Amino acid sequence: MRKLGQHFLLLIIVLLGAVAVVLFFTPRLPDSTVLVFSEELTGSLSEGNENIDIEPQYFASGINDSYTGLRSWGIKRGKNGSLPSADPGAPELLSKYNGLYLGDTNKKKIYLTFDEGYENGYTAKILDVLFEHKVNAIFFVTGPYLEQQKELIRRMIDEGHAVGNHTVNHKSLPRLNDRELEEEVVGLDRKFSQKYGKNMVFLRPPKGEYSERSLEITSRLGYVNVFWSFAYDDWMVNRQRGWQYAYDKVTQNLHNGAILLLHAVSKDNADALDKIIEYAEANGYEFGDVFELQELARGGKE
Prior knowledge:
The chain is built from eleven helices and eleven strands.
């Protein structure tokens, strides 16, 4: 009986050892916030298209109409400093609900925005560069980022940046009903206000997906939807191509009133940012105060 007990104990030890070895060599699964950003933008990055999804499961109301229909933000890049072209009718729709994707196109001004779904170790460096150049930006954060990165968010606020709303869970807003949509947006703002005593003004719809309904609801709640006039596939952390690639992509697409979308998870962006700012300023561009975008979107109406 005693020998049986010893054999059983030995078996348990062997099994525990095997489990430990398996756990040690098994790759760590990505955090859920990382998985959410595996395909950050569904709209077109370089080619213009209407890109309205006609499948009924993509409409919160179940009705295929232009009010509830899901749209993915898409732009066709301009060349040699010319302005990009947005999908037909999209700029007018944004303007109707106090949203925007460009600043004042009569001025050589650029606005920087960064999307922050999760922290990948580069935001502090980005903040250092912005502080050195006296440039501010909008950092669009999600619920997990708000909870997990208190020191970085405090730096953003203290150093004069805007903290924007990228929703609690990074869900496509047009696919939610009215109550769910409001909770995704206002729920994040409420937590931000409780922690920092401020409210969010700027909203970036996750994945660039929107509808007239989502624009109307969020505008009525007091938010300015900020889209972009330039973006590239920089959110793919396993496909970084070096600072020179990021530098070339951005500097070749500068234009008046540009609202640049960059992802802070990108090592390339962090490494290139200093040189991007220097290039832009050397070529006559000024980095605008991002808080100007609120008044610009609302036409002076607060």
